[in-house]
Amino acid sequence: MSFTKVNLSIWLRYLGVLGVTAVFLIIVGCSTSPLYTPQPVPQPRKYPYPPASTGKGPTPEKGIATNRENVVIVSPEESNQPSPVVDDSSPQHMASLELVDVGRRNIEAGNVDQGISMLERAISLDAYNRRAYYYLSVAWLKKNQPSRALEFAKKAELLCQGRKRELKKIYLLERDIYLRMGNKDKADMYQWKADKL
After folding, report:
1. Cβ–Cβ contacts within 10 Å for residue 175, how many?
2. Closest CA relative to residue 117, chosen from 86, 143, 85
3. Does the pLDDT value for residue 155 go beyond 90?
4. Is 33 helix (H, G, I), strand (E, B) or coil?
5. How far apart are the C-alpha atoms of 87 and 116, rounded to whole Å?
6. Is the separation of the CB atoms in 48 and 87 below 8 Å?
7. Which of 10-24, 39-53, 171-185 comes out lowest in average pLDDT?
8. Are 163 and 197 in contact (CB under 8 A)?
9. d(CA 51, CA 33)
10. What domains sit in the chain, N to C, each tagged with a CATH number?
11. Rounded to 5 degrees, what are φ and ψ at 74?
12. How confident is residue 106, by pLDDT bands cut at 50, 70 and 90?
């Protein structure tokens, strides 16, 4: 064999090995899962909600429990019952509902900081838990921080659109927050919104 034939045969072997390696890598690379798989954007949950009151029984203003500052704490339906049952029975959602109940009881007992901690954990488990935002707003108002209370009341208001009874409670809470902030015009506006429901 001459020098060129040796070089040529080495080059052909080298290219053959490269070709087999490339084919192998392509086959293996295609059969493995990619490092990143885009996830679909989660949609807000739609919870079933009982029909609004038919007017029988006490009016909400007379039947809603308030504290010394006349802030709405618990409606008559919530006072003796656990969280409402919804279709979503995921462990995170159920744990979030339990934490809301524990947080609400802590707030009612005067343990506002513990209540806030429980409610924040509830939101970390279920970001669409409207009751958690409502009670967080109540807690921050009790701690005399109306700007933080208003922040959570606005989030609860967004999550309660279409739920008249809950929205009325939130409007009354927002009225109380604006009164605490000294903004009578906004407080009157939220009183008017609550009366319209």
Report:
1. 22
2. 143
3. yes
4. coil
5. 26
6. yes
7. 39-53
8. no
9. 48
10. 64-196 (1.25.40.10)
11. -140, 130
12. very high
Q: Which DSSP string corresponds to 14-33?
A: HHHHHHHHHHHHHHHHHHSP
140 phi/psi in degrees, rounded to 5 = -70, -30
Contacting residues for 49 by C-beta, under 8 A, at least 6 apart: 163
**How many C-beta atoms lie closer than 10 Å to residue 106's C-beta?**
20
| Polymer length of the chain | 197
- Residue 67 sits at the vertex; the CA angle it makes with 64 and 68, to the nearest 5 degrees, is 135
Q: Are the C-beta atoms of residues 133 and 21 closer than 8 Å to each other? A: no
Mean pLDDT for the stretch of residues 99-116:
93
Q: Give Cβ neighbours of residue 126 (< 8 Å, ≥ 6 apart).
A: 92, 93, 96, 97, 132
> Which residues are paired to 65 by β-bridges?
74
Which band of pLDDT confidence, cut at 50, 70 and 90, is reported for residue 86? very low
Per-residue pLDDT, 21: 63
Tell me phi and psi for residue 81, to 5 degrees: -125, 150
DSSP for 49-114 reads -PPPP-S-SS-HHHHSEE-TT--EEE-HHHHTS-SPP-S---HHHHHHHHHHHHHHHHHHTT-HHH
Cα gap 125→132, rounded to integer Å: 11
